[in-house]
Amino acid sequence: MKSLINEIEKCKICEPQLLLGARPVLAAHPKSKIAIIGQAPGTKVHNSGIPWDDESGENLRRWMSIDNETFYDPEQIAIIPMGFCYPGKGKSGDLPPRKECAPLWHELLFEQLKELELVLLIGKYAQDYYLKEQAQKTLTETVKNFKTYLPNHFVLPHPSPRNNIWQAKNEWFGKEVLPELQAKVKAIL
Questions:
Q1: How far apart are alpha carbons 138 and 115 in whole angstroms?
Q2: Among 127, 151, 153, 159, which residue has the least CB neighbours within 10 Å?
Q3: Has this prediction a pTM greater than 0.85?
Q4: CA distances in angstroms from 31 to 19, 169, 172, listed in the order given
Q5: Average pLDDT, whole number, for the chain?
C-alpha cells in the first residue's frame, strides 16, 4: 500500500491540464474500514495537502459523528477522491474531477483494502461511477433511496456549505439519512 500511495502522490499524468499543478491528495491503509469517495480536492486542500481540510470536511465529520483523530486515522478511514488533484475553477465552482484518476488508481487501491466494510459515495460523480445504472436520475433520488445501496455503499450529497439550500429543501436527509449513517459508522468503528 505504501508504495502504491507513493506512486499516486508522484503522478503527473494530467498536470498539463491543472492550473495549480499536480498534488494528489489521498489517504489509505490496508486496515481501513470505511472508504470515502468524494469529488476532488479544493484549493484549501490543495494548499494544505490534508484531505477534507475545509468546511466540507467539517460538515462530513459532523454528519458521520466522528472526531478529527478518527477521521484522519487511515487504519479507520481511507480517503480516495474521484480526482486526486484540484481540477481548477469553473463558471459555477470547481471543475469536475479529472477522469484519469479513478480508472487508473481506484481498483489498485481497493484491492489492498482487505478490511473494508463500507464505502461512502459522496456526490454525483462518485455515485455515477460506482453505481452505474443503479444510480437514480438525480442525486436527490439516489440519496432518498440510500437503503437500496446498503450494506456496501452509503450515498450522500456533497457536504459543501453550498448545499445548505438542498438540505433545507430536503429535511428528510437530516432526519432519516444522517442517523442511519452515524449508526453504521459507529458500528463499524
A1: 31
A2: 151
A3: yes
A4: 34, 38, 33
A5: 96
